Amino acid sequence: MFLRDDFLCYNTHVEQSYSELLEKSLDATRRALLDIVRDQATQRGLPLYIVGGSVRDLLLGRRLNDFDLTVEGDAIGLARALASKHGDTVTGHNKFGTAKWFLPANLKTDHRTLDLISARSETYKHPAALPTVRLGNITDDLRRRDFTINALAIRLDGSHFGELRDDLHGREDLQKGLIRVLHPRSFIDDPTRMYRAVRYEGRYGFKMTQDTLALISEARALIDDLSPQRIRHELDLILEERNAVSMLKRLDELDLLTPIHAAIANFSQSNLGTLKLDDPALQNRNSRWILWLMHLTDQEIEFLNERLHFTADLLKSLHSAAVLNANLTAVIGLKPSQIVELLESYSHKALEVLSSAVQDQVIKNILTKYLSEWWYVKPKTTGHDLKKLGIPPGPKYTEILRRLRAAWLDGEIKTEEEEKKMLNEMLKESN
Ligand code: ATP
Ligand code: MG
How many whole angstroms from 253 Cα to the centroid of ligand 2? Predict the structure, then answer.
């Protein structure tokens, strides 16, 4: 998993043609794909827009690896026409007017599909609910969004190519570096937006406006109503960001961690809060979860899991890391074979993170040695060989192989001959 690139080149102050800017920001394959969709929309008389975060990033002078397209009208019909002309298939979701075109080989980018979405309006039946969706026009579609900087669109069809739709003054906020909600109920409708706001602040070095900040206090209590999947998704996205640490500090400062669970308040005291994250082993989301939570007790991790529903794999590593973290000094002064025996029961992922994060140099060396060397040491003899020697299969096999491995680890044997000799002696002893 790669972290998001935080390279920025501010273009927003320069008046320029948006069509040119768009073409410059896409590589040839993506440009070809966009041209094909534009042509088809133009032929069908459908207003087509590139919308949301893609426009924001475009105006910030970033290269676009991805774009979101919205159609005023029938997105599924447009996708079907594209598939019948250029190949491959479409799946559509009629109720929401969304279509997924499985791209033919010559049009594939690093994405295998292209989503086409009908412009829609969204309303919320109750706070923190999922929205009720109705078809609408581009104005409705911009109004349903989270922040002004994400409520921008550039029209793509026919002679309209390059027209900026900025009904909510997102461009100005982009120039000023401001994150601003579109209406006062925004965080109440969807409390995940508070986490999104902090992510954009941290990613772009922007700030929420005073009005937007002031809306947090009223919406904080509704975080409780968010499903585990939704809240964990937001934290996952934050942990994938290069500036994850400063974003989590900001969440803590705004008291947006305590409502998720008291155990994760005081972020600054966690390992994630105190360490530099430049180690390559820490450039992925799960390592950062482990680093963040490894000082918690088993019980706290279980409570947190009820709130966030971690994947089974991550949950196992979290528990393992917490136990390991609490017992790290136990590895000091042991023989390699004893260390291996001790560490083997821990998750590999937990060991990797701890070996990068631990401050004590002696412990760090031991963990590194275990991961890079000792873990791989195996005796030459196998269960198969023992069978050939006429030893009846059973728990004895494990014991013999374990003793041989320990001898290699502790330097008692160094060659295959020495191993054979030791094996013979062990077999004699047991007869
Ligand atoms: P990123 O670079 O993180 O992907 P993005 O702006 O593309 O940022 P997405 O989550 O991909 O964000 O969503 C695409 C667009 O959909 C956003 O720009 C925003 O306009 C809208 N959007 C996403 N999530 C929400 C939300 N919770 N409430 C309102 N609008 C949203
Ligand atoms: Mg996006």
Answer: 26
Which protein residue's CA is at the shortest distance from atom 27 of ligand 1? 193
Between the CA of 387 and the centroid of ligand 1 the distance, in Å, is: 61
Question: What percent of the chain stands above pLDDT 90?
Answer: 79
Max CA distance (Å), the chain = 92
- CA atoms of 20 and 201, how far apart (whole Å): 28
Q: Six-digit token pair at 112?
A: 């295998």
For a substitution probing ligand 1, which of 146, 204, 215 has the most ligand atoms within 8 Å of its CB?
146
Query: Do the strands 98-102 and 90-93 form a parallel or antiparallel pair, or are they unpaired?
Result: antiparallel
CA–CA separation, 282 and 301 (whole Å): 20
Tell me if 253 sits within 8 A of 214, measured CB to CB. no
CA distances from 262 to 179, 300, 308, 418 (A): 27, 9, 13, 57
DSSP letter at 279? Answer: S
- Please write the tens of the pLDDT for every residue from 273-286: 777 777 888 889 99
Tell me how far apart the alpha carbons of residues 429 and 396 are, in angstroms, rounded to a whole number: 13
Q: Token pair of 197, please? A: 């706001």
Q: How far away, in angstroms, is 86 Cα from ligand 2 center?
A: 26
Mean pLDDT of all residues in 75-80: 94
Contacts of 358 (CB under 8 A, 6+ apart): 328, 364, 367
CB 273, CB 249: distance < 8 Å: yes
The ligand that comes nearest to the alpha carbon of residue 131 is 1
Half-sphere exposure of 337 (CA within 13 A, CB side): 15
Determine the Cα–Cα distance for residues 93 and 100; give it in Å rounded to an integer: 9
